[in-house]
From TrEMBL:
Keywords noted in UniProt: Cell outer membrane, Ion transport, Iron, Iron transport, Membrane, Receptor, Signal, TonB box, Transmembrane, Transmembrane beta strand, Transport
Record family assignment: Belongs to the TonB-dependent receptor family.
Organism: Bradyrhizobium denitrificans
Domain of life: Bacteria
PANTHER family: FERRICHROME IRON RECEPTOR-RELATED, FERRICHROME OUTER MEMBRANE TRANSPORTER_PHAGE RECEPTOR
Protein name: TonB-dependent receptor plug domain-containing protein
CDD domains per record: ligand_gated_channel
Record bears the keyword Iron: yes
Amino acid sequence: MSARDVWGSISLAGLVAAGWGWAPAPMAHAQQAANSSGKPAAETVLPGVTVDAPRPRPVDGRAPSARPTAAQTASSAPRRPPASSPAAALSSATTGPTATTPLNGNATPASGSRLGLTAREIPATVEVIGAETLREQGYHTTVDAVKGATGVSAGDAPNDVGFAMRGFQGNQINVLYNGINIGPTGFTALTMETFNLDRVEFLKGPSSLSSGQGAVGGTINFVTKAPHTGPVESEAFIGFDQRGTFRSGFGSGGSTTVRGLDYRFDISRTREVGFIDDTEFKNVHVSGQLNYRLSDSFRTFVAAEFKDYKAKPYEGTPLVPVAFSGANATSGIVSGTKVSDYNGTNLGAVTIDGRTLSTNYNVIDGHKTIKESWVRSGFEWDLNNAVTLRSQIYNYNASRDWYNNEVSAFNAGTNLVDRERFFVHHNHNIVGNVTDVTWNGSIFGLSNRMVASVESSHTDFTRPGAANFPGESVPLVGFDRGTYGLLTTQLQTAAIDSVAINLEDRLKLTDSFALVGGLRYNPFTLDRNWIRNGAERPGFPYSKSWQPVTGRIGYTWEALPGTTFYSQYATASDISADSIFLLSPTQNLTLSDSRSYETGVKQLVWNGRAEWTFSAFDIERNNVYSAQAGQQLNLAGKVKSQGIELAAAVRPTTETRLWGNVAYVRARYADYDLANGGSFSGNTPPNIPAVIVNGGGSYRFLNPGWWPVELGFSVRHVGDRWSTDANTVKLLAYTTADLFAFIDLPKVPLFATATSTRLAFRVRNVTDKRYAAWSDPFYPDQIFLGAPRTYEVEASFKF
């Protein structure tokens, strides 16, 4: 997201919610699934939807147990809480493998619940995309991965990280890292290579219970790779595209010569060249973890991570009058009429000028740099057969710098593009602890599992930002990009102290029917100051406290083996203005409250070869403020969102894989009355398409006379979206298609040490569709274009 948006996106909602942050469970990417009898079936991973459930390895030489049937899974006691804890992951290694299913219903996502439930046992829509699917679908970046999930959209520009789901966008989507919430998506969500990730988890709908403030539309959890117990396994890859992009990575993990000590280390390096002139981003990501089993009942871990991100950003392409562009006007990208929010001139019917499809309106010295570091450590202690104590401490530190021209607004009075600069820097530090106690027992003879946890965190945030905004006007094409110019700054600070008490419980009334619920009490305090020209601004410093209570209650009912019905009611809360730094102390500092009703069904059939899920939801968020141009906010009343989601995958034969998902949402404002007497009630919020469809398939040729070759495709359709609350400029629907081919090579002298070598060829956006990918409500005179056709080649190795 743009730096100007960052000026207004230090959402208190995200900063205070440093949620559960254990590291992931050990993952070994299974290439075989189990049918309902527990017997393996060949070739199970489905591109794009098939994901890799954790498959714990034997501990101390013990063989894993067979996978339970669907009925046994439903009637068994809940599993230990999953990945958010490496210590819990070590203990789970003795419980046997969890088989991969077409939609990964047997995976145990940390973001869905702390109760250790599988995705099928959680009364909500949960998706998991594992490392093998990230690799096979070519999801190089975290933005790529997010767009593969049901009903999720995102901006394509590497520097502009914005997500939307279930009728909400931006900071109403929580982004977690190993279960920890570090702040609002607008400035903390960093585009990164997926090589270091073990999986990406999605929890749809309000979810403050599991991830804290800000989770209205849903939660995305990025989980890094963690150690496994067993022989050392290593992997590496190298890839290129025709624009000059270069990607590489190396990872290794397994047991050391020290009994009980396992390790994991990963490093990736990316230089992605953008499709806009003189744009790119570079990212180095290093992550590592040690797990140590001191005894059968006590396990501990330490993990560290570092990211170094440097970008020459793309800040958007200006909307231009059709009358001005003439023969250069494009079709199929945008439509509608526009009065400039920056200079007030009437552009009339607008278009994207064909001469600007790769034009960079940023200044020559524009840049974005981010350095992040993590340190995490914790333990798990089985006090007895029924009680487990876990605790983790963590420290997150980030230094961020934006220095760009961010406004590019066409002026119909001068036929020039008005430009304006913006600068901001962040020093961001969080220290936190999460401690919980898990109890497995019974109530009145009914199986019960309860988790009680206490979270605490302290955030220090310092933000030197621009106090002046240099700018000028330039021709639409053929201009001197210039430099930033004079910069003067001002200082804003925030100190946030948060405590949260969580309680979750699962009570099994019968072997097939369970009640699942929880409550979260989360008092937090903000202390702010703002200094400009050496003096404190009026009303500063000030302090404000909140005490939100959120929760959920639902049920799961396995009416037939493999068929689970569910319903739930959930609530969430967040800062009403989305961005606390846009409100003065005299304005409304109350919280928004959200509620959701959801019901659905999840089914695994055909001996584990087919799986589908269906959900219907109704969400309402009250006391909403909405972003407007010029860093202004409107009191928008409420947002209502109803929709349905359907995902399915099937393996008709050993060689064939098919998958698809579709989401429909109707989102609109209510009680959105303007000060001038107008109204936006009934309008759709920006960047929310009514329909998103993903699908694909592949066929693997197994002729003994050939090297194994797999051919496949994927298709993505995103419906019309609006660029602002006014609903006057439409980002038109688009459909893109990708083609890919894999060749698995036998051992050859060049790669003699590799046990698996794969060459991958991919064409993205094969029809070279030009489309609008995203808009920024703070910059409504410009939009972000999607990437054109791209050719890629990659070699990967396992050894």
